[in-house]
Write a structure and sequence with these properties.
The protein is an alpha+beta fold and about 450 residues long. About 35% of the residues lie in helices and about 25% in strands. The chain contains 16 helices and 19 strands. It folds into two domains: about 280 residues, Aminopeptidase (3-Layer(aba) Sandwich), CATH 3.40.630.10; about 160 residues, Alpha-Beta Plaits. A six-stranded mixed beta sheet has the order 1-2-6-3-7-18. Strands 8, 9, 16 and 17 form a four-stranded mixed beta sheet that branches. It has a four-stranded antiparallel beta sheet with strand order 12-14-10-15, with helices on one face. The longest helix is centred in the first third of the chain and has 20 residues.
């Protein structure tokens, strides 16, 4: 199997490089993304091997591919391997290398999307193609889903296809991004796989004021000044720590010194303790235990000599399992204060509920067994992803979904977090090798559970 895995790893590496070079950058506009480049690349690689292929294009260039390998038992559960082909925009001046060069340097593939999530998209495609070419049959259908528009919410990708083409993409289990970071503790290795993701509660605040001449600002009702006060209050607001089992397990898995671990799990001491962590670790851990409110876009003012009479402030708010959209207004009132809250009009711009999958499934058992093939004796923990993934649309259909993958010891947890949407995004070839093998091992075990 070693020679075969070497070949598959090379194929995954080369495919990842090609996907990076396709530059399917999604800035949220309908015209961006142009994922047809990667959908066609993947289709060409799968044509003629024995899978059923379908292309869907709800808008020109916004293309998704569904490939299906039929099982031997129509009653057996099916599984979907889902990877998105779009990537977020990039600031090239912050990179050490061409962000779309797909260069292989010192055992690492560099480029936008290398960890989010073209590494998984490419390894899934290679594993799927290998299974189909080998003519190995499993009881249930295996689906490979290369989906567009994940980075802008899925309206031209997973959400659209699930709403309109469920007969084509429907499945019983799903694997997608992201998981598999190993953390060495004193008592053994821990590997975290995603079972839960936060929900979204986008809000736009419409903040009023009174116009006036910019040369006479004293005592005026400047909407921009009010907005600045609101931003300051939002940033200073503490929504309170959600100290549940998943958060506690995450803290314990990260192998902090015992005294720091205890303070991180103490609601009174938590805020001070988290400030002692490295920045990427602190950001991630804070979001896993709190409702988060991030003021990200502000618009207001028309002329340098005119006091603005209106400002809009857009907030990216992420909620935890159990929180409702109505809870968000309570947080905003508490954060902003009645004196300003009652002046502001709040518009709900995009909403999604937090979603969670039980680990009491054959797929979780197969996933744990497959992880143990790579990391014998490792403890596999369910964990939360702070951003949104397309898994939430499948969970609405009752499909158990896990974010998976495997990383080598070459990339630490904090470094991996920094590479998401960051400068110098890259992934090591050993992680590509382990993840390609992971999909094969999961499929070999799924229907035996």
């Amino acid at each position: 199997m070693t020679d075969t895995l070497d070949t598959l790893t090379s194929e995954t590496t080369e495919l990842l490089q090609a996907l990076i070079r396709n530059q399917c950058v999604n800035d949220g506009t309908v015209e961006s993304g142009q994922e047809d480049r990667s959908a066609k690349l993947l289709r060409d690689g799968l044509e003629g091997v024995g899978a059923d292929l379908e292309i869907f294009e709800p808008e020109p260039g916004r293309t998704s591919l569904i490939a299906r390998y039929e099982g031997t038992d129509p009653e057996a559960p099916s599984i979907c391997l889902m990877g998105h082909t779009d990537v977020v925009p990039v600031s090239p001046e912050g990179w050490s290398r061409d962000p779309f060069g797909g260069e292989l340097v010192d055992g690492e593939v560099w480029g936008r999307g290398a960890v989010d999530m073209l590494n998984l998209t490419s390894s899934m495609a290679v594993a799927f193609r290998h299974i189909v070419k080998s003519k190995k049959r499993y009881p249930g259908d295996i689906i490979y889903f290369a989906v567009a528009d994940e980075e802008a919410g899925g309206k031209l990708g997973a959400e659209h296809l699930i709403d309109t083409e469920w007969d084509h993409i429907g499945c019983d289990y799903l694997l997608t991004e992201y998981g598999g970071t190993p953390v060495q503790r004193d008592d053994g290795l821990v590997v975290m796989m995603t079972t839960t993701e936060k929900g979204g509660a986008g809000r736009t605040l419409h903040i009023p004021g009174e116009p006036g001449h910019g040369s006479m600002p004293y005592g005026t009702d400047n909407a921009l000044v009010t907005a600045a006060q609101i931003v300051t209050r939002l940033v200073d607001y503490d929504p309170g720590l959600r100290l549940d089992r998943m958060f506690s397990d995450r803290v314990k898995a990260l192998n902090f010194p015992k005294e720091l671990e205890q303070r991180l799990l103490d609601p009174v001491a938590h805020a001070e303790a988290i400030d002692e962590l490295p920045p990427a670790m602190a950001r991630n851990l804070h979001s896993c235990g709190h409702v988060s409110i991030s003021p990200n876009i502000i618009n207001g003012g028309e002329k340098i000599n005119t006091i603005p009479d209106s400002v809009t402030l857009q907030l990216d708010i992420r909620i935890l399992p159990g929180d409702t959209q109505d809870d968000v207004e309570s947080h905003l009132r508490a954060a902003i204060g009645d004196d300003l809250f009652n002046r502001v009009e709040i518009e709900r711009t995009h909403e999604s509920e937090a979603s969670q999958s039980s680990i009491d499934t054959p797929l979780w058992g197969a996933l744990v067994d497959a992880v143990h093939m790579a990391y014998p004796g490792a403890k596999v923990l369910p964990s939360m992803v702070t951003g949104g993934t397309d898994a939430r649309f499948f969970r609405k259909k009752g499909v158990p979904c896990y974010g998976a993958g495997l990383l080598s010891h070459k990339v630490g947890f904090e470094e991996f977090l920094n590479r998401f949407h960051g400068h110098d995004e890259r992934i090591d070839v050993e992680s590509l090798r382990m993840t390609t093998q992971l999909w094969l091992d999961i499929l070999d075990r799924l229907w035996e559970q």
